[in-house]
Task: inverse folding
């Protein structure tokens, strides 16, 4: 029961090797030589690109800061308007209260309330 293994080397003739050599030779003969300045130009363009990117980043940050300040200013103006409105309503109520007190004769009690109200107005402002 002996088994024998036989190996054979097969070699196929291919036509691709000479074609590749011909194409490689043709490329090296016909291709123009690159300019020695292309690397310098590429570096300069890369630096410009990085500069533009940095400038865009700075402008985005400034824009967000300005928009944030504008929204804060709008909130502050809104609160100022509300404060002025409340102060005007408070003054109207104080005048109405004084008129009622003088017409009904509650001068002492009402004057104490009015003095307290003016103290609160002064304290809040």
Result:
């Amino acid at each position: 029961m002996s088994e024998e293994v036989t190996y054979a080397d097969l070699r196929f003739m291919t036509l691709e090797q000479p074609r590749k050599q011909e194409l490689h030779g043709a490329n090296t003969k016909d291709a123009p030589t690159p300019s020695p300045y292309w690397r310098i130009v590429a570096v300069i363009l890369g630096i410009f690109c990085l500069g533009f990117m940095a400038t865009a980043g700075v402008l985005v940050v400034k824009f967000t800061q300005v928009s944030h300040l504008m929204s804060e200013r709008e909130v502050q103006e809104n609160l100022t308007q509300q404060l002025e409105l409340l102060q005007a309503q408070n003054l109207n109520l104080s005048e109405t209260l004084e008129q009622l007190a003088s017409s009904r004769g509650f001068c002492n009690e009402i004057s104490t309330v009015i003095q307290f109200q003016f103290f609160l107005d002064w304290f809040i402002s």
